[in-house]
Design goal:
Largest sheet: 5 strands, mixed
Number of domains: 2
Helix content: 10-25%
Strand content: 35-45%
Number of helices: 2
Number of strands: 16
Radius of gyration: 32 Å
Distance between the termini: 80 Å
Structural class: alpha+beta
C-alpha cells in the first residue's frame, strides 16, 4: 500500500469514528417517555362517590305488551290506525307503533316528533301472530333502541340504553301495557352522592404512544397521586369511572395528558374527575 493510499485510509477511519461518536451522542441525548429519569408527574382525582345499595346502578326500562285483538272487558277491539307509544331516554328517538288492517288501507297517525312503526294485520290473525308481527316491525325500524322478545302473545320490550324513560302508553289500542322495570340513571333515584377528593383510587400511567399502561399508583387520603423516576416525554394518565349511561355498573376510562420537558422537574397533570 502506497503512502497516498495509507493517508486516505486514515482519513476515512477518522471520518467514520467521528460519525459513530456523533451518532452515539445524538442517541444518548434522545429520550422517550419512560422510567429511569429524575422527573415526576403529580395530580389529583376527585368526583362523586355513590352509595346506598342497588339503587345506584343505572337501569334499563323494560315494558310488557299483551297483544290482544280485543281487551275482552270493555269491548275495545284493534282498529285501523290504532297505535301505542314507545319512548327512549332523553335525547333519543321517540316512536309510535300503529296498525293497518290488510282488508283496507289505514291512515298513518303521523305524530309530530315521533317515528312511526307500521304493523299490518288481518282480522283472522291470532294474538300470537299479531305479537310476532309487532316484534318484527319494531326490530326493523327501532332495533338499535330496543331488544324485543316474544312469549306467545306477550312482548317484552327493553331499552338498549339505561336511563329515565317516559312509560309506554297503550293510547287507543286494546293492548295491556305494563312497565316491568323502570329506567333509571345511576346518579339519581335512591343513591346518596358525596362529592370531593377520591381516596385510595387506582391511577394508571401510559408512556408515550404505547397502548397499555406501564405503572400504577393509588391516591392518598386527599386524592393526590405522583409518578416518580420518569424521563422527558409525553404521558397519558387515566382512572376508571362508573358509566352512568349503562346498566350493570360498567366502567370507562377518564384520561388526561401531561408532558415532562426537562430533568429534575415535577409536572402537574390536569385533574381527573370520576364517578364511583
Amino acid at each position: 500500500m502506497g503512502k497516498s493510499q495509507y493517508n486516505n485510509m486514515r482519513h476515512l477511519l477518522k471520518v467514520f469514528t467521528c460519525f459513530i461518536f456523533a451518532s452515539t451522542i445524538l442517541i444518548a441525548c434522545s429520550k422517550t417517555a419512560g422510567k429511569g429519569g429524575t422527573s415526576s408527574i403529580k395530580g389529583e382525582v376527585n368526583g362523586v362517590t355513590l352509595s346506598g345499595g342497588n339503587g345506584n346502578l343505572a337501569e334499563k326500562e323494560r315494558t310488557t305488551v299483551i297483544c290482544n285483538h280485543a281487551d275482552g272487558i270493555g269491548g275495545s277491539i284493534l282498529d285501523n290506525s290504532d297505535y301505542f307509544l314507545l319512548n327512549t331516554p332523553e335525547g333519543g328517538t321517540l316512536y309510535y307503533v300503529w296498525y293497518e288492517n290488510t282488508n283496507w288501507l289505514g291512515q298513518d297517525p303521523g305524530l309530530s316528533g315521533r317515528t312511526g312503526i307500521k304493523v299490518t294485520y288481518s282480522n283472522n290473525d291470532s294474538n300470537s301472530t299479531l305479537a310476532s308481527n309487532t316484534m318484527t316491525a319494531i326490530n326493523l325500524i327501532a332495533g338499535s333502541d330496543f331488544t324485543v322478545s316474544l312469549n306467545n302473545d306477550i312482548l317484552t320490550i327493553e331499552n338498549t340504553i339505561a336511563g329515565e324513560v317516559v312509560d309506554a302508553d297503550d293510547v287507543n289500542t286494546p293492548f295491556v301495557i305494563d312497565t316491568e322495570n323502570q329506567g333509571k340513571a345511576a346518579t339519581i333515584g335512591n343513591s346518596i352522592q358525596t362529592s370531593g377528593a377520591i381516596a385510595d383510587e387506582r391511577v394508571y400511567l401510559i408512556y408515550g404512544d404505547e397502548d397499555f399502561y406501564s405503572e400504577t399508583v393509588r391516591t392518598d387520603e386527599n386524592g393526590k397521586y405522583q409518578f416518580t423516576g420518569l424521563t422527558k416525554g409525553n404521558y397519558r394518565i387515566f382512572a376508571f369511572s362508573l358509566d352512568t349511561t349503562t346498566a350493570g355498573g360498567l366502567l370507562h376510562q377518564v384520561e388526561v395528558e401531561a408532558s415532562i420537558s426537562k430533568n429534575k422537574s415535577i409536572s402537574e397533570a390536569p385533574s381527573i374527575t370520576i364517578i364511583r
